Structure formats: structure tokens, C-alpha cells
Amino acid sequence: MDDRGARRPDAGMTQPATLAPVLSGLRVLEIGHFVAAPFCTRLLADLGADVVKIEPRGGDPVRQWGEMIDGRSLWWSMHGRNKRSVTVDLKSDKGRALILRLVAECDVVVENFRPGQLRKMGLGSEVLRGVRPDLIVAHVSGYGQDGPGANRAAFGVIGEAIGGLRYLTNQAPGTADLPPVRVGVSIGDSIAGLYAAFGVMAALWQRDRAGGDGRARTIDVALTESVLSMMEGMLPEYGALGKIKQPAGGGIATAAPTNAYPTADGQWVLIAANSEPLFAKLMTLVGHGELIGAPGYASNPERVANVDTLDQLIGAWTRTLSAGELVARLDASDIPNSKAYTAADCAADPQYRARGMVREVPDKHFGTVLQAGMVPHVPESPGTVRWAGPDLGEHTDEVLGELLGLAPAEIDALKQEGVL
Amino acid sequence: MDDRGARRPDAGMTQPATLAPVLSGLRVLEIGHFVAAPFCTRLLADLGADVVKIEPRGGDPVRQWGEMIDGRSLWWSMHGRNKRSVTVDLKSDKGRALILRLVAECDVVVENFRPGQLRKMGLGSEVLRGVRPDLIVAHVSGYGQDGPGANRAAFGVIGEAIGGLRYLTNQAPGTADLPPVRVGVSIGDSIAGLYAAFGVMAALWQRDRAGGDGRARTIDVALTESVLSMMEGMLPEYGALGKIKQPAGGGIATAAPTNAYPTADGQWVLIAANSEPLFAKLMTLVGHGELIGAPGYASNPERVANVDTLDQLIGAWTRTLSAGELVARLDASDIPNSKAYTAADCAADPQYRARGMVREVPDKHFGTVLQAGMVPHVPESPGTVRWAGPDLGEHTDEVLGELLGLAPAEIDALKQEGVL
Q1: Which of A327, B77, B192, B331 could link B369 by a cystine bridge, Cβ 3.0 to 4.6 Å?
Q2: Can you give the residue range of the structural domain that contains B55?
Q3: Do A185 and B231 touch (CB under 8 A)?
Q4: Which residues 257-276 of chain A have a CB within 8 Å of chain B?
Q5: Statement to judge: residues B68 and B215 lie in one domain
Q6: What would the pLDDT profile of A149-208 be if each residue is shown by its tens digit?
Q7: Is residue B8 part of a domain?
Q8: Is residue A292 located within the same domain as residue A353?
Q9: Where is the secretion signal located (chains A, B) (predicted)?
Q10: What separation in angstroms does the CA of A34 have from each of A61, A75, A108?
Q11: A354 occurs within a structural domain
């Protein structure tokens, strides 16, 4: 299904795509729901891991999230891709017994229940490692597995706020009475899922490498901590100087001019022209060459001090042009710029298309679905979309037969009992 | 320096911290600068890898970024931690020869020059693999290593815009004439660096595991693609329905009420109360119990349709209370909430402190520096801060002696020549 290798004659890479998928040979059990844990396992599955997703008979609620067609979520087609869906009732003794038999066949378990929940269900790490002593267990939670606040209810937007991200995603103090803005997606959940994928592979490497220790490890990822880890100098600067980092709206507190500017056709175009040569080029375009090297504008610190004036004057010019015309003029002057891409812009971008980062994926319900490709790209063995998000329990018979040797009659009986 | 193990009697983890660091035995050469590649290697170093950072004699410019004391960046204390700094002039033949000798001793090279730049310098992957055939090479770039747009200048804010993040980080259309907001940090660079760390560990696992293929792989991470990969249902929904996902300001387009609300003391508090029981609790607190189950408010879809009215009415109440009083009342009613944490709030948070996610780190120049801890947390072998960001070239003699067996006299001669 993946034709990137063929599509990339200009790759200039060191090898053609000839190796096995990066994570072939790895088997992961997901007992997750919503965004964080399933995003982690999507990344592992995209690179070739066999991910078995355990779902209750009602299914992961994310199957109903976002825009739907005939009750099927379009997002699920991408979020659930490359995974095998198996329904198991975790509340039944027979269900838990099946989980333990599956765990014995897996390298990793990824889960995102509230801390302690799996243990309450009789599936704590010590129980899981009773059947698989070197099991890597990844927990993704709002605040971590321990500590005084571990059991607070986890909501993505609240985790992002506690991580320090929300306060900084706002207009500069005094600019507007509007609330700080949420990034349009659950970015904290996805970053936590990515950290979990990193931690899982790190633990597997130490466990499995020649000279490694063969030991089980626990990957404890908190949404709040995942966000806080990306806050750059915020903590060091506060600790040493008592300085509380402040939001800067569309700009950057330490560089000018760089912002998103409005166009005649109601779009936004990013312009980054805070170096001396770029500032000179931009002022020439804008028709204010007199500011080049002028007092108050001769250096980045001076321009930062006058950033509001500068942004108004640049904005007055950009408002006279359509986004297309503005981008064309900026490109002609080699000034770094870009429209603030919408879904339509991303879908049409030739660079994304050339690299297979935007691709049509066959889906048995939707025909094809437009999806994002795999990150990272591994040219010697690119990730592939082997199948789109599966139906609930689509692989129950296949997985229980293949991994546990259950006969169709046994599986049917378990379904009758409501265990599957 | 890491005292988490001791500080976590309530850990409830399956093992005490007794194992070797997760990435002990791994050696990484960083030929990077600014944010993305150095963030990738920070994550690897935090988990115990030996990261050798190659810097020009002028040093990585990031050493001068952000707030400084005596010309030293506070952020660098965290960004550079746990790495060994070695100065090498890549433009000199002797410098390149030293790099190749170092590469022969490393498992991984992480770089973030413009695509093709290293090859131009005579350090392309094929050359590096001439001395280390199974070398994992991670490239972090703005748009990827190939494709028609690979060589555009990479700026973080522009990469985030092309990834679709900036358009969605804004007030709802028609709300305000203000530009879409930049997340207060270079989030795209950090996400790309995290993807690179994940990819590196995935490639190392397949190379080094029993039954693995022992093969070199390339990890090609683009900032734009890293951001786009987190856009959830944006592409599938656009492709199938032509629907262009729109920003929703502080709220969520599909849930209400959930937003950041203003307080009497000029702060913002997140409240997430879009389920029926939470909505009822909140309306009781706000003093509008009549809306519970009332037409227009009886279900989440109805509330979404009336979200502006609802947010105004909630905001009118929150404005009468200080953030502390508001949070206390919401907590008393078990309504999920949080202040939009500032640097000061993050620094003081007891959960972060209990988990060592906010910690004082010894720094020879600053005394101690407040830093974020390690993500992920691995209780059996927690990451540690072995040392804060090193001085430029602090480990040149040590590394060239230890890894290449150079004698002090040889090293001094190379310094005289300006190679080091």
C-alpha cells in the first residue's frame, strides 16, 4: 500500500527501501482508549509493530469522536490504523485470563487508565510480569503513577494548563480580554503518547540488545510532565531571576519583526524577517526603506521595543494584498514566509505529497481516506498503512486463534458468554 | 544528583531503582545546533546515553539564547545537560578526520543542518558509514531530506504554520481581528526532536536485538511533518467532507462548557464541565440551577450551540472570585479545573516536586538552576542530571583522549592549529 519508495527518485538516500519494517518482530498489547495510549501504539504500528488493541464490547469511545459518516468516525480510520482490534470483557474472570495469556505473547503493554485502575482489575504490573517476567509496561496518565496528585481526574486541556502551555498561548498581557487559546488539537495527549513510544523503545533496546540486561522496565509518562518538558528556559529563568515568562501573541518576545499578518482575503501569512538583511528586504517591499538602519529599528532589540508600530505598519501593507500575491512577493524577495496552513493547504502541499506525508488510504467503509503519513520517515524501510482503522473486534478470532490456539468453537462459546 | 528514588516511598512501583540507566551503553554524536537536534540528544542523555556534542569554536548559538547571567544562558543549563561538549572545526581536513574517528566509536549521529549540508562538508551518510557500517543517522530538518521543498529555509514558526498548528491556535473566526497565537515555545522543534529520539531507538532496537538485522537506518524527521502528524482528524475530515477544521479560541468546538475563564485577580482558570453531572454541579455553583436540563442546555450539542451565552454567564461569576477562591469552590464540587499555570505555578506544584519533575540542579556557574526533570520516568532506573550544560569544549581533551587515545600534546597541537 505504501508507494513512497517508488515515488522518490530524488531521495538521495543511502539505500533503497529494502529492509524489513523497523519494528517488525515487536508485539504490543494496548489496553487504552481516547488519545494518548492509542497514539503511542499508532506510532509503533506505523513502523511495523504488531499492535493488539483490547477493547470493551462497547468499543473505544474515540470510535465516535469527530466528524462521522454512517456513525463511523473519520479520525478513527487514521487513529486505529495498522492495529488488530480484539474485544475482551476485562470485568470477567475469563476475560482477564485471556488477557494474561495474550500478555505472555507480547513484549509491551501500553495502558492509560487512571493510576491503579488496572491493579484494581487484577491486572497490575506484578500480575502481568508473572506471565511475562521481562514485560515493558507503559502507563500514560494525567499526572503520573505516584505522588499526592496522581489520582486527580485527567483532562487534556487541564494537563496542558498545568504543563504551562496554556498560559503562554495567548495575546500579550493587556492586548485583549480574550482567554488564552487552546491549540486546536489535544496536543498534550499526543506528546505524552510520543514520549511513551520513545520510552518503550529505549527500554526494549536495553532489554534486548547484546549486552543488555534483559530486564522489565516501567515507562511512567504524565501528560503534564510531557508538556512541561518542552517549556525551554521557562523554569531556569524563573528560578534564577524570578522572571515569569509571558505570552507574546502571534510574535516572539525576543525577535522582531516576526508574526502572522492579515491579508486582503481574510487569511494570515507568517513572516519571519528579524535578521538585518531580511528586515531591509521587507522594509523595501513594504515601502518604508527609510526605517532601514534608522534609530529605533537598527537592531533586533530596538525593533523589539517598537514591535507594535512595526507590526501595524507591516499589517497595513499586507492587508492590501491577497495571500497568494503576498506570498509571491515575499518569495520573490527571499523573505521566509508561509500562509497559516488550513486542512486544505496541508492536503494540497506538494512537499507533503512528494514525501507521502499526505496520502489516500484505502478504507473498506469510506473508499479512501486522506491521512497523514508516518513520522519518522525511514527510507531503508518506510512505515506503511497496512490497513485503516479496523472494525470493533475485527481481529478477535484471528488473534485468539493465532496467538492462543483457540478453536473457532471455543471462541464462539466465549462470545456467547459475553467474554468477547 | 538524582534523589527521586529516595523521595518516592509512595511509588507503588514494581521495583526499586536498582537497574542501570535505560540508555547506558549507548553513544551518540550530535552535530547539531539551536533546538531540534539538541533536544533529541537531551532526551537520550537524560536516560543515560553518552552524548558527545560537536560544536564550532564559536559554540552553538543557543548558548546565548534567552535570559542570561554574565553572558551565560540559563536555558542552556538544561538544554545542554548531561552532554559532553567537544569543539571541532568541521571546515578543516583534520577536523573532519577527527569526526570520522569519533563516528567509528558511536552508535548514532544526530544532525540538523540544512539537507545536503553535511554531504557538502564531506560528511555524508555514505562517508560516515564507511567508518561505521551500522551507523544510525538521524536528520532533523524543516521539510525533510528530499522532495521539491526540501531546501527552503527552516524557521520554527513557519514549520508550525505549515503543519497546520498555527491556523488552529486562534480565536474562533469572527471573534477578534488578532493574529493566530504562537505557542510560547518552539513546540514544533521540540516535537521533531522527540520524534527523532523515538526513531533512533526504534532503529537501534531492530539493529541490535537478538534476531535483529544489524543494519544501518536513516531517521528523516521533518518539523512540518512532526506537527502535521498530531492534527488528529483534520485531514480525514477534510478529505471526506471538505470540512476545514476551524479554531475555537479557548474552547473546544464539540464540547461545552469547557474554556479558560477570567478571575477577579486577572488570572485564567480552566473549567471542564461538559458532562451532564459536571454541568449540573457547575450551574448550581454559578447560581443558574434553572439551566440544568433546560431547553438549549439539556445536552452537550445544545450547550455547544449556546456556548457564547454559557461562557459569558460562567465568566460573569468567575470574575467575582480570586483564582484561589474559584479553584477552591470548584475543587469542593469535584469539577475538573486548574489555573493556567505560570512558571511560578509550575515551580511550586507539589505533584511536580514529589516526582522530581521540578528540581534544583547544581550548576557551577549559577549555583543551582531550577530545571524540569526527565520524561519518561522509569522507576527501575530513573534518568538523572549528571551535570548541567557544559562550557564550550569542556570535554574536548577528555573525549579525544578517552575515545581516540590522543595524547595531551597532540590535542594541544590541534588547538594551536585551530582544529579544536
Answers
A1: B77
A2: 27-231+348-417
A3: yes
A4: 258-262, 268, 270, 272
A5: yes
A6: 999 888 899 999 999 999 999 998 888 888 999 988 999 999 999 999 999 999 999 999
A7: no
A8: no
A9: none
A10: 7, 11, 19
A11: yes
